[in-house]
Structure formats: C-alpha cells, structure tokens
Amino acid sequence: MYNACDTLRSLPEILMNELSAAGRDMPIFRMHLPMSHRDHTDASAYLENEIHNLVSELAKAFGIVFSPDRFHASTVLYRRLRHLALDAGDRVAAGKLGFYDFAEVMQAGIFMPVEDHIQALATLISSAGREPADETTGVMISGILPPPAAVIKAIESAGLTIVAVDTAPLYRRYSVMPGPQSDPGDYFRRHYDDHYPCPTLLHTADQRVVALMARMRQNSARAVIFIGEKFCEYEYFEMPHLVKKLADQGIFALQIELSIEDGPHTAAHDARIAAFAEMIRQHPEK
C-alpha cells in the first residue's frame, strides 16, 4: 500500500491487526520507493535491490520459484494492454468512443487478469464507430481520480468533449512503459524513472507543467477541468501553480472538489460546468 496519503498511512497495520484478531495471520511485505530525482541522486541501484529483495521474499513466503520467462511473457501482455489503452484514448479524443465507457473499462480492469482486460479493451475498440458531434469544445481532465459518471455526463451535456486526460488511473498509468524484459529490477526501475509526471511521485513534480501543456497541445484541448480529491494535499499544493501557469497561457481551468463517495451527489457541479462551457465558447480560440 502506498503510504504517501495520510489517510492510508496506518492502514496496513490496521488490516494486519484485525486479520490477526480474526485468526487470519497474513504476511506483510514492504518496499521503499526513493523519491530523489535521478539527475540529483542516482538511486537506481537501491531501487533495483528493493525490487529483487521483494521478489525473493514473495518466493520464499509462498514456496515458489521466480521465472524470468514468465515475467517476460507478462511484460509483453502489459505492453499490449498499454497500446490498446492508448488506442482507445485516441478514439475517445476523436469522438468515436464515449469517455465514460472508456473510463469504466479501465477502472474495471484494475481488478481483472491482464488477459481479460486486454479482451475488454479490444471489444470496446471494436465497438467504436459513433459519429462525432458537429460542434464541441475539447477539454482535458486532470486529477488523481477520474470523474464519476454524473460529472462526465454533465461535461458532455454542456457540449464539451474530453479530448485528453492525465488522471492517475488512466493516462499517467499507461502512457509510459518499458519494453518487455526478464529482469524485474531493471523493468520496474525503468518504469519508475520514466513515469508520467504525478504530484505523488515527488521526483517528477517539476515536469508536471511541461507534460500538461504538451498533452493539451497534442489533443487541441482549450481548457482543463481539475477533479480534486478531497483532503489530497499533493493535488492541492500543485493546483494553484498549475492554474496560474495555464492562465498565463490564456487557458481556462475549472476546479471541482469531490470525494470518492460523492458519485451520486454531484448535481451542485452541473451549473458550474455549464457556465464554464459557456465562458469558453464566448472566447474564440486564438
């Protein structure tokens, strides 16, 4: 469990204590991720050693032998998944797929075997074919979590098309991935080093503005809607800076604060989204 979030910091111990009290003693494994930028302090060897130690501990705990060949086969599958996700995202940007359908498949895939997720994405892509709307305004969605269905509906009902996204479970998750490899230490170290900039990975934070702007230009987005997760300090520390940088470039930004249980209760945001869409349309694209 990633413990950068204060609300999760003690969750592993809480779960272990409750499971133990219920007579279900389970092992807990720990791995430390260095937060230093590789250009300042090269922690590559340290991270690779942490990964190899974790592999050894897992093998010992469950009486199995690590297989480089099977690991290589797995990295091939995940690279295939990444390409399908990028393909589906491009179809969403072109208006041939609904963002909600895409986000739903990507979120469900977190709990699927990778083979099933690949099939679900392939099926989604094969269903693409709806006619894009004649007049829409492209926007980008950013944040830790993707917006709930009601917010997506409000965005699309306001005549906005989600042409780009860099939420953590979506584009940040699949946009960069190393090629197939047999060594987990090297593979995950490369994945970590080249990860799409995210405020929860401190060593990438300085690259956020550049990455955000590049993503917007690539997909011709005219505005950004930030979906802020309540109590997430990482997001709220960076948002004022990002909004100012966007404003300096003449790019509109809307901030919406949600919590994970707010899915059915987002009506208050509908009017703000509609007003935001109208404001964009009143300012012709330069």
Description:
This protein is of the alpha/beta class. The protein has a single domain, classed as Rossmann fold, CATH 3.40.50.11900. The chain is built from eleven helices and four strands. The chain has helices spanning 11-21, 44-62, 68-93, 99-109, 114-126, 149-157, 171-174, 184-193, 208-219, 233-248, 267-281, and strands spanning 137-143, 160-165, 223-229, 252-258. Strands 2-1-3-4 form a four-stranded parallel beta sheet, with helices on both faces. Helix 10 links the parallel strand 3 (223-229) and strand 4. Helix 4 (99-109) runs antiparallel to helix 5 (114-126). The model has no long low-confidence stretch (mean pLDDT 86).
Helices and strands, with pairings:
Elements: H1 11-21, H2 44-62, H3 68-93, H4 99-109, H5 114-126, E1 137-143, H6 149-157, E2 160-165, H7 171-174, H8 184-193, H9 208-219, E3 223-229, H10 233-248, E4 252-258, H11 267-281
Helix pairs in contact: 2-8, 3-5, 4-5, 6-11
